[in-house]
Amino acid sequence: MVSLRLRTSARTILSESESTKPMAGPQPQAITLSSPQQAILEALLRQSTCPQALSLRAQIVLGAAAGQRNEPLAQALGCSLPTVRKWRRRWAAAEAQLAVVENHPRDLRLLVASVLADAPRSGTPGSFDAEQIVQIVNLACTPPQQVGRPVDAWTPRELADQAVKQGIVSAISARSVGRFLKRGRSATASLSLLAERQNQAG
After folding, report:
1. pTM attached to this predicted model
2. Of 202, 201, 198, which Cα lies nearest the Cα of 47?
3. How far is CA 43 from the centre of its chain?
4. Distance between alpha carbon 5 and the CA centroid of its chain, in Å?
């Protein structure tokens, strides 16, 4: 499956970076990860409920922080070079903000989700603000059992119901939730986002 391949690629990227020889040409924008930031990104990859788009972006950041150049990183993850550049820049631009909430795990997790989320599309009426969208994406990366949901994996309908239950929004359709989670997926990750069953590792 694509999700398994992506997560496997993320694990190999870190080890490959040590043996990658320097290449000619301009160096890509350097980014750094603190231990808490890296822990959050790696935790996202371990969750089978994490949307494919978010998983890909987390792997890009991890690979970039490990020293991978843009082109080999794009090849390893099966995505485009502009995609790698975009999310490298996005993370670099947010490093100061991330440092501010470094010692507040909940705030840091929300900010990481915000950095990796899609910006609202221009020209589309904003029924939901950016904070609500980020909270819904963050909820999708939380195992359903942690919030008392008796299901193995999230579906857009379950997420919509839980978002209302938690007071994130007063009402939202499963279609809208699916749209938030699907934006910006790479062509190679065009699977259903939330159809996988979560592995019960204990």
Report:
1. 0.57
2. 198
3. 10
4. 16
Q: How many CB atoms lie within 10 A of CB 129?
A: 11
| Residues whose CB falls within 8 Å of the CB of residue 80, separated by 6 or more in sequence, listed in order | 74, 186
Amino acid at 155: T
pLDDT digits (tens, 9 = 90+) for 154-171: 888 888 898 888 888 888
DSSP 74-106: HHHHT--HHHHHHHHHHHHHHHHHHHHTTT-HH
- Euclidean distance between CA atoms 191 and 6, whole angstroms: 12
CB 139 within 8 A of CB 131: no
Nearest to 84 by CA among 2, 37, 23, 28: 28
For 3, the token pair is 């999700």
Percentage of the chain with pLDDT > 70? 71
* Token representation of residue 104: 């507040």
In 3-state terms, what secondary structure has residue 67?
coil
Alpha helix stretches (DSSP H) within 66-186: 70-77, 81-100, 105-116, 130-140, 156-165, 174-182
Amino acid at 114: S
First to last CA, the chain: 22
